[in-house]
Amino acid sequence: MIPATPPAIIAPAEMPAHVSNSFEFTIDAPLARAAPLFGPEGERSWAGPSWNPVFLYPRPAEDREGAVFTVRHGAHDSVWVNTLFDLDHGRMQYVAIIPAMVATVIDVRLIPEGAGTRARVGYTRTALTAQANADVTALGQKDAASAEEWRSAIAAALEAQR
C-alpha cells in the first residue's frame, strides 16, 4: 500500500553521523599469546577498570564467538555481541549498541610479523539518532588516536604475565 503522503526527507544536517577509523600497532608477542588478549575476558588484563563485561551468554563467562555481554560506559550500558572469534587466525569482531545512541562494529586483525604480531583495529560507528552525532564524531576521533594507548596497555599486561 502506498502512503497517502510521501515520508519526510531528512535534511543532511539531521542525518546520523557515520565514522570509520582504524589504527595499527605491534605487539611483542607471537599470535598465540597476543590473540587471547582481544576477547572480552582477556581484555580485562589491559583495558583498565572501566572495562567490566557482564556476560549474559555464555555462563560461566568465556571468550568465544556468539558471546553476548554488557559494558557500562558512564551513564549508559552497551550490549555487545562477539560476531567473530578465531584465535588461530587472529580475527575478532564485535557489534556494540548503546540503545538510542550509537551502533559500533569493532574489527580486529592480528598478523604474525617476525617474532611479534601486528594488530589492525577498525572502528565503524553510526549514530542511531541525529542527537548522537557529536558523540559519534568525538568517539571516532578518539578511536583514530588509540594505537599508542592500546600498545602500551597490552605491553604492560604481557609483561605482568611473565
Explained architecture:
With 162 residues, this protein is of the alpha+beta class. It has a single domain (17-161), classed as Alpha-D-Glucose-1,6-Bisphosphate, Chain A, domain 4 (2-Layer Sandwich), CATH 3.30.530. 19% of the residues lie in helices and 39% in strands. It contains 3 helices and 7 strands. It has helices at 31-34, 133-144, 147-161; strands at residues 18-27, 54-57, 68-73, 76-86, 91-98, 102-113, 116-127. A 7-stranded antiparallel sheet has the order 1-7-6-5-4-3-2, covered by helices on one side. A hairpin with a 3-residue loop joins strand 5 (91-98) and strand 6 (102-113). The protein starts with 17 loop residues before the first strand and ends with a helix. Mean pLDDT is 92; it is low at 1-10.
The overall average pLDDT, rounded, is 92
What is the CATH homologous superfamily assignment? START domain
* Number of separate helices: 3
Number of strands: 7
What sort of overall outline do the alpha carbons produce when their principal axes are compared? globular
Query: Strands across the major sheet, in which order?
Result: 1-7-6-5-4-3-2
| N-to-C SSE string, H for helix and E for strand | EHEEEEEEHH
Largest sheet: 7 strands, antiparallel
Head-to-tail CA distance between termini: 66 Å
